[in-house]
Amino acid sequence: xxxxxxxxxxxxxxxxxxxxxxxxxxxxxxxxxxxxxxxxxxxxxxxxxxxxxxxxxxxxxxxxxxxxxxxxxxxxxxxxxxxxxxxxxxxxxxxxxxxxxxxxxxxxxxxxxxxxxxxxxxxxxxxxxxxxx
Amino acid sequence: xxxxxxxxxxxxxxxxxxxxxxxxxxxxxxxxxxxxxxxxxxxxxxxxxxxxxxxxxxxxxxxxxxxxxxxxxxxxxxxxxxxxxxxxxxxxxxxxxxxxxxxxxxxxxxxxxxxxxxxxxxxxxxxxxxxxxxxxxxxxxxxxxxxxxxxxxxxxxxxxxxxxxxxxxxxxxxxxxxxxxxxxxxxxxxxxxxxxxxxxxxxxxxxxxxxxxxxxxxxxxxxxxxxxxxxxxxxxxxxxxxxxxxxxxxxxxxxxxxxxxxxxxxxxxxxxxxxxxxxxxxxxxxxxxxxxxxxxxxxxxxxxxxxxxxxxxxxxxxxxxxxxxxxxxxxxxxxxxxxxxxxxxxxxxxxxxxxxxxxxxxxxxxxxxxxxxxxxxxxxxxxxxxxxxxxxxxxxxxxxxxxxxxxxxxxxxxxxxxxxxxxxxxxxxxxxxxxxxxxxxxxxxxxxxxxxxxxxxxxxxxxxxxxxxxxxxxxxxxxxxxxxxxxxxxxxxxxxxxxx
Lengths: 133, 500
Description:
The structure holds 2 protein chains of 2 kinds.
Chain A: H1 5-29, H2 36-39, H3 58-89, H4 93-116
Helix pairs in contact in A: 3-4
Chain B: H1 15-33, H2 40-61, E1 65-69, E2 74-76, H3 78-100, H4 109-128, H5 132-150, H6 157-188, H7 193-204, H8 208-230, H9 238-245, H10 248-254, H11 257-273, H12 288-308, H13 313-334, H14 337-368, H15 379-382, H16 384-398, H17 404-418, H18 422-450, H19 465-483, H20 486-495
Antiparallel strand pairs in B: 1-2
C-alpha cells in the first residue's frame, strides 16, 4: 500500500542530493568576491530604494479593479467567439450577436459609471469630504 | 448538429432574478445620468422599489415546480419562491430605510441601492440553489456587497472596523465551507445536492468508519459557511461588532434577509443532500439532528446570556438576532414537515418585528444621537408612538401572545415536541428557558421607555411621516398576525405542497 509514492520519494531525494553536490562543488570553482551590493535585496537589476512596507497609492487599486472588468470581458467573450462560426452555420447567428452585445452593453455601462464618477481621473482628491478621525 | 439547449430552458422560472438584474442595471445608469439632478435620490428609490415590486410580481407568476433548471443548478419550487418573496420584501423596507437615514449620504444613495439589489439577487439565487457550485457563488454574491455596505459610512472608524471584521470572518468561514464542499465532491463525484445525498447514503453508510468520519468532517466544515451567514455559534463573533459599526439601515436588512436566505440554503443542503425527513438518528446513521440541536442550544444560550449585559441597543439586538438564529436552528435540526413550515412562517414574522425594532433605534439615534438603552429613557413621554411600537416589536421578539412572535415560536417549539425524543424535549426546554431570559433584556428597553425619566433633554423626539407610516406598516401586521395567522400559514402550506 502506498508503494507508488516511493517514486516521488526517490525524486525528492535525488533532487536534494544533486542540488547539494552542485553547491558543494561550486565552492571550489567560483571566485570569492563578496560586496555590499551582492548582499542587498535583488530588485530587477535596480538598486532598492527604501522599505517595501509602505502604503501604495490607492488609485492603483481602483485602476486594477477597472482592468478586471476588461479581463473578464476577454475571458467570457472568447467562448462565444469560439463557437460563433459553427452557430452561424446552424442559423443561430442572432444568438451569438445578442449574447455579445448584451454582455458588452453591461461592460460599457460599468466603464461609463467609473468614468462618470471621475474614478479614471488620476489627480483626484481621494480623501473625500470627511477625513478619518 | 444543433447545440443542446434543453438544459438552458427555464428562463421563465428565473424571471424574478432577471428583473432584479435589470433593476441593478437601470439604477446604475440612472445614478450616472441624473448625477447633477436634485431629485436623484427620490427617482432612484422609486426605480428600485418599482424593480423590486416587479420582481415580487414575477415570483407570483412563476409556476412552482421541483424540476431542476439550467443543468440542475437551480430549482424554483414553492419553498424557494416563498423565501425569495421574504427577501424581496426585506429589500423594499431596506431601501426605504436607507433613503430615510442620514447615515447614508445623499450622493451615495444610488451606490447603496445598487449594492442592495445585487445582494437581493444573490439571496434569490441562494434560495433556489441545488448545486454546491451555484450555492457557493450565490453565497459570495450575498457576502461581497454586504462587506461594502457594512463599511458604507465613509471615514467612520467603527464602520470600517465592522467591514474589516466582516470580511476576515467571512473569508475564513467561506474557506472552511469550500474545503467541506471539496471533500463532499471527492466522496460523491458530483456537486449536485440530491446526487451527493444518494452517494453519501450508498457509500458513506457502507464504507466503514473512515468513510463515515469523512462525511461527518465534510458536513461540519460546510456548516461553517451557513453558521456564519445566519450568525450561529461558533461563527457568531462578527455579529455584535458589525451591527454596532455598520449603518443602521443596513443592519436592519442584514439581520433579516441574509439570515432568511442562509436558513433556506441550510435547509436545502440538509434535506435534499441528506434525506428528508431527518428524524432522530437510528444507530449507524449520521447524527445531524444531534449536532444541529447542540448548535441550536449553544446559539440561543450564548445569544441570550450575552445580550443581558449590553448597553448599546444595536449590540443588544445583535445578540438577540443570534438567539433567534438558535430557535430557527432548532427547527432545522428537527427537519420534519412541521418544522420546515415553522421556519417559513417565522421568517416573515421575524422580518416585521426585527426591522421594526431597528427602525425605532434608527429614529431615536437620528433624533438624540444616542444608541444606548439610556437613550430610550422617557421615550414614552417624548415620543409615545415610537415607544408603543417599540414595545410591540420587543414583546413580539420575546414571543409573548397575542403578538406575531408567539405564533412563530409556537410552531418552532411544536415541531421540536412533536419528535417525541428526549433530546429534542431537552432542546425545547433550553429554548423556553432562553425565551424567559430574553424577556429580561427586551423589557429593560421598554422599562427605560415608560418608567424612567430622561437624564437631560426633555424635548419631544420627532419622527418624519414616512418613517411613522413604515413603522405602522410593520407594527400592524405584527399585531394582526398574532391573532389571525391563518392566511400566512395558508401561503406557507401552499409553498410546501410540492415535493422538494
